Structure formats: structure tokens, C-alpha cells
Amino acid sequence: MRLHPRPGTESGIRRLARQHPAALLWLLLCSTGGALAALALPAALGHTVDRLVAGGPVPWSGLLLCAALTLAETGFDAASAVTGTSTTARLTASLRTRTAAQILAAEPRRALALPTGDLTARLTARTADAASAPVTAAGAVSGVLLPLGALVGLLLIDVWTAAALLLGAPLLVALLRAFTRRTADAGADYQRAQSLIAHRLTEALDGADTIRAARTGAREHRRVLEPLTALAEHGRRTWSVYGRAVGTSGLLLPLLMLLVLAVAGLRLGAGAIGVGDLVAASRYASLAVGIGALTGALGALARSRAAARSLEPLLTLAPLPHRGLGPAPDAPGHLELRDIGVEQDGGPLLAGIHLTVPGGTSLAVVGRSGSGKSVLAAVAGRLLDPDTGSVLLDGVPMDGMEPARLRREVAYAFARPALLGGTVEDTIAYGPWTASPEAVRDAARAARADGFLALLPYGYATPVADAPLSGGERQRLGLARAFAHPGRLLILDDALSSLDTVTEHHVRRALDARAGHCTRVIVAHRLSSAARADRVAWLEDGRIRATGRHDELWADPDYRAVFRTDSSTDSSMDTPAEDAAPASRTPASRTPASRTPASRTPVTPTAGAEAR
Questions:
Q1: Which candidate, 605, 594, 600, places its Cα nearest to that of 570?
Q2: In 368-470, which ranges are continuous DSSP H helix?
Q3: Residue 18 in 3-state DSSP?
Q4: Residue 21 burial class via C-beta count within 10 angstroms: exposed 0-12, middle 13-18, buried 19 and up
Q5: What are phi and psi of 490, to 5 degrees?
Q6: CA–CA separation, 508 and 446 (whole Å)
Q7: Which residue has the higher pLDDT, 260 or 415?
Q8: Coil, strand, or helix at residue 548?
Q9: Nearest Cα to Cα of residue 464 among 449, 479, 474
């Protein structure tokens, strides 16, 4: 899925420029003040020289004026540099925050249509380039004002001298135009190559364990760095454009300067201008042909424009639509999926899904890998909008509910949870609201995380980065985070896969304790999870093969084969030998008495979240 800006949407860079108008106005004033001081200095210097040549007392007033103008030019330039740097930093932070917020507020499939590495590159390097545009534009005023003002100064001194300068003006304009266009094209190609490298590097980092186990590090190294050839070519092209512009200007500008000074010298010899005028004319000619600052500003603006174009699709992402509805008050979490269909790349991931989960009950979603279990879990809590059909929570369409209110009613736990927050306690408290310390500890006990947390150097205050966590411990923190933010719907997307048998048993008991006031949807690979659920939805190729109680579905050999396949491919080291049972054995009846360790069914841990 490609991202395109919405038509008629105001540029995000224009909105960004309006966020710090005072700083940009001050920068504009400093830039303009420095340019005006630079333009006034040749006239003051020429007048002072004329007075010195004429004899008489030392023109201290003229000398002081020249010194003051020099100091003013230097001061304004320094203020412009400081203001520009600080404003660019603030604009970059603001643009990054806004772009990230826009991505998070949009429908996930559209927001994540870009590869992860490309998205990372746009959120880092591109935002810095794009955010510099308002500052560069404000600072470029001096680059435009100086040559124009110098031309006016020459016209005031002598028309023929100014005409000599105008003789080369068309060549200067053509040079600047070609430089800007070619720099923009080369910069855009360079940024695309950077994004490709970032994407491949992100893939390699995510699969570091696989690469290490397969001993394919050298191959991945070559794959990641393969775009460097194109990157180097685009970089050489950029410098080649810059070099040609500098080379051409290096030849053109001295010739133009020589022409202006020659005409001014002839006019001096003819008595049309004085010595002071000649000094001022030489200074104005230098300012007029000194387009280095303008060339740099144009190059920066070209890069900023290319970066802004790459950010525009993200900044114009439509937020998740809703109708401002709220959840039904005091309802148990009755979940309905009506004729759900999800497509990707022209193929169906889900089709014709009809499911009803009564409030306060549990539903296990089972099926072979790739059957669409995680997609269904994402649709059930509106992490993903279906292409067809609707999802209702207590009779209210989820796509009509205000997202912030919906997120307070739906809690998720994943196979590979992202541990956000500074400390372990922050990680568990992280959610639609910040859970209290008491709620954090209660949730940790329910998820059986309190035991290993007590062994950490600083307990709950241990920084997450310093906590050596196994896969099962990470899952328990993810479960604790979900338990600390109770709503009417809890969705576990393979969130028990890395737990040992004893821990899983205690976590299941904590889930059972929520019966009656919290609906639970559990993506399950283990027999034990399916056996304890009130109902089971069996997915096959994105469709519902059957629904019913686990012991009813067990009579179907194809249903039993789903778990036999998992048992043959996954490790079951966490399953005690006395708990193992032949695949053909009928599980015990699902009664409260059967939910004891003695009646557990075989379990088969999986390696991680199902690919969506």
C-alpha cells in the first residue's frame, strides 16, 4: 500500500513554521539587520575615504560609524546563528512528535504501509532536514537582500558600473536555477538509498539471533551494505552538481568582478566618480557576486523540500475515523464480529467471519500457523479495521467509538510485548491511564511476575534496560500491564506461549477469576488454553471452520491434528511427563473441578507472535 497525501491539505511545514513565529520573526529581523548593516558599510566607508582624501581633520564620526556597522553586522550574524540553531532543534522535535502522533492516530495498515527502516529514516533524518526549511528560508533573506541591495548601491553610485554588473546577471540566475533543481533531484535519490539501507539494517537487527544461528552474518552484511554503491553514486552526483556550480561561479564571478572594477576605474579616470565611490563600488560588487551563502541556502532548501515531500504522506494520514460514540455503560463486554473480511496485497486474510462472544465469557481462537488468528485478534480490539463487516462491543460499533474511550475498554497482551517505560513499574503502569503502585503490584502477582521482580537489583524500580529478562518473564510483564488496566474486553495474542506449565496454570486461574465481568479472547496454540475456554473458534485459511466447546470439537480428527502439528514442531520441555497425553485421548470434561493441575492437557509453547 502506497501512501499519498490527501488533496487540499495544508503543508505540514507551513503548519510547523507557525508553531514558533516569534523565533522565526526574530531570525528574520537579525538576518535582515545583518544584511542592511553590510549594505550600509560600503557607503559609509566610501564617504569616510572621500573625507580623508580631501584632507582636513580626521573624520572620527565616519570611522565610528564604520566600526558600529561592522559590530552590528557581526552581532546580527551571531544572533542569527544562535537563534537558527535553537529554533531548528525545537522545530525538529515538534515535527518528529507530530509525525509520530499522526502515525499512531491513523489506521495501522495505512500508517505502517512503509517498511520499518524507511519509516525510521523519515522520522529521524528526514524530519531534521525538513524542519530546517523555515529557518533556512528566514536566513536566506540576507542571501537575496545582499546582491539586490548591492545592485541598488551601484546604481546610486554610477549607472554604467551597475550596467556592467547587470551584464552577467542572467548567467548568475541560470546558474542558481540549475544548481537548485539538480541538487533537489540528487538529494531525493540519496534519501531513498538511505531509507533502503535503514530498512535492511532494521531487518537484520530484528533477526540477529537467526542470523547468528545460521552463521550468515557475512551475507547479511553484504545485503545491508549493497545499496551503498547507489548511495555513493548519488553522493558523488550531489558533490558533482555542487562542484560544477562552484567551478562555474569561480570562473564567472571573478570575470564579472573584474568587469565592474574596470568600468568603475574608467569612470574614476573620467572624473565621474571619486575615490570613495570606487571603494564603495568594489565592496558592492563583491557583495553582489558573492553568492556562496545564497547557493548554500538554496541547496539546504532543496534538501528540505525533498525531505518534506517524503514526510507529507505521513503528516496527511487520516486519523482513525469515529463518530464520537462511547461504550455502553455497565455492560459486560458482549463482542460481535459480523461478516468480517480483511485483505492484503489482493488476497484475503479473513473472509466471512461471524462470531459472537457473550459478555464475561472466554473464547479461544485456534488454527494452524497463517490461518489468521492474530489478524482476528487485531480486528476484535480495533487495532486493525476490517475491509468488510463490523465489530460491535455491547452493541456499539467499534468504528464509531472515540479511540481514547475505546482503548480504556480493551486491553491487549502479546507474545512479544514492547516494554515501554523507564523502570519495571513504569512498564506495568504504562497504558491508557497510569496505574497506581497498588494496581501494579496486584497485576504483577496475578501474572506471576512478582517473584522474579523481587530478585531484581532495585525491585520494581529497576530500569528495564538493566533487567535481564527471559522470554517468559517479558510475557509476564506484558500480562501484568494488561491486568493493571482492566476493561470489559481482554485480548491475549499468543501471550502465554513462553510460560512454563506451572506459571501458565496460575495465570489461567487469574483469567478465570475475571469471568462474568470481563470478556476474554485468547489466541491459543496450546491444548490447555483451548480446553479451559468457554468456547473455541477454529480458523482455517482465514475462515471459521467450526465453533463450539473444546471437548465437542475434539471429536474431529482435523481439529486434533492442529495440536498434533504444534506438538511435533514446538518444544514441550515445560510440560511434565505425567501431564503428557496421547493426541487421541479425549480431554476431561470442562468443569470447575477439572481446572486443576492434575487434569491439565498437553501444552506446546510457541516461539513468538504469529505473523500478521
A1: 605
A2: 373-380, 403-407, 424-429, 437-446, 450-453
A3: coil
A4: exposed
A5: -120, 125
A6: 9
A7: 415
A8: strand
A9: 474
Q: Please, what's the b/e burial string for 168-199 (b: 16 or more CB within 10 A of its CB; e: otherwise)?
A: beeebeebbeebbebbbbbbbbbbbbbbbbbb
Are 198 and 120 in contact by the 8 Å Cβ rule? The answer is yes
Lowest-confidence pick of 23-27, 295-299, 506-510: 295-299
The rounded Cα 75 to chain-centroid distance in angstroms is: 38
Does 571 have pLDDT greater than 50? no
- pLDDT, tens digit, 9 for 90 and up, residues 483-506: 999 999 999 999 998 898 899 999
Alpha carbon 227 to its chain's center: 22
Task: Give residue for cell 530498512.
Answer: 199
Helical segments of 410-500, H only: 424-429, 437-446, 450-453, 471-483
Q: Which residue has the cell 568600468?
A: 263
User: 33 is written with which cell numbers?
Assistant: 539587520
CA–CA distance, 32 with 35 (Å, rounded to integer): 5
How many CB atoms are closer than 10 A to CB 154?
28
End-to-end Cα distance, the chain: 15
Please give the model's pTM, rounded to 2 decimal places.
0.67
Cell 568603475 sits on residue:
264
3-class DSSP state for residue 112? coil
List the one residue out of 333, 248, 259, 326 whose CA is nearest residue 291.
Answer: 248
pLDDT at 219 over 80: yes
pLDDT tens readout for residues 66-92: 999 999 999 998 998 899 899 889 888
